[in-house]
Amino acid sequence: MNSLQLALHLDCQLDHIVARVDFSLPGITALFGPNGCGKTTLLRMIAGLERTARGTISLGDIVWQNGSKNLPAHKRNIGFVFQDARLFEHLTIADNLRFAEKRAGKTGPGIDRHEVISTFDLSGLLVKKPAVLSGGERQRVAIARALVSNPQLLLMDEPLSALDIRRRAMIMSYIETIPAKFNIPILYVTHAIDEVARLADNIVLMDKGRVIAQGPVEEILARLDLPALTGRFEAGTIITGIVGRTDPVFALTTIGLGSQSLTIPKLDLPMGEKIRLRIRARDVALATKEPTGISIRNILRATITEIAPEPDTAFAEVRLDVENQNLRARITRASLDDLALEPGKPVLALVKSIAMDRRLLAAPIERKP
What we know:
Helices cover 22% and strands 36% of the residues. By secondary structure, it is α+β, with helices and mostly antiparallel strands. It folds into two domains: 4-222, P-loop containing nucleotide triphosphate hydrolases (Rossmann fold), CATH 3.40.50.300; 237-360, CATH 2.40.50.100. Strands 7-8-9-3-10-11 form a six-stranded mixed sheet, sandwiched between helices.
């Protein structure tokens, strides 16, 4: 898989964006943060669409911007997918794709248009015009059009924000295949944590025009010092597991986590499939002794690694080690005191089976070489 180094040293006085980033782009990297934090402006700066940007940008060995050198957007060899599809309404879908392919001026082997059409299930749409397509269909075409231009890097600016939950889940299933299938990394802008958990390998966390943190998504979401940015109510962690047996009577699937396991609602996935799950901190309770007579089926042995009380609230965040993976629990400070919890103490983490975000369960994690 293509692994490019994107180096940014940028200032944008108009929107108060200051970015100092140097990171590799395997798979999908999410630019994440609250609305108005500068994600879209930074993406436009990378694309060459923001004229007020000052500084340097390079992708691999190619310098896009440095001093007097500033490659225009059409020479930066990127594909851009906007919030709205921005298709040519007077052209058929087939002609939209041909136009993108022709404008790219490919001189050698690249992404095959017919393979893109097959991958995104567009065969039945080719003779249609954009006006008759649904929102999800339009975005599939927009992504396909960006791909046939044979880019080195695909930029996506909240491409799912206008879609309902069902269509969002469907389009995510297409997006997550792109890096491995077409050997193109993606820089993906979103303010939705479920999209980050489903799609991203790495995350760049932004706030007020500045990059606050960056790294593997599992590590950043597990940090307790970023609650204002990663969210308190939706805060959680991503863990990986192996699909085990399914109980046909009770419709439960076992997920192996090292020497322990979880049971979750039935998955239609083969045994041995490696998947990742997002578990919210608010859906994890803690105990210091084996509970009895409860409905919660998932009881995991864990060790407390960090505690972050929130003096301005009733709550505290607790980070746990479970089979060398991070899990977070959000409990009251009163419970923290009653149970005498402290770093290094072994505990039992109680996780409801229904607490797992089932829309994310089938997300394959093996997108890296």
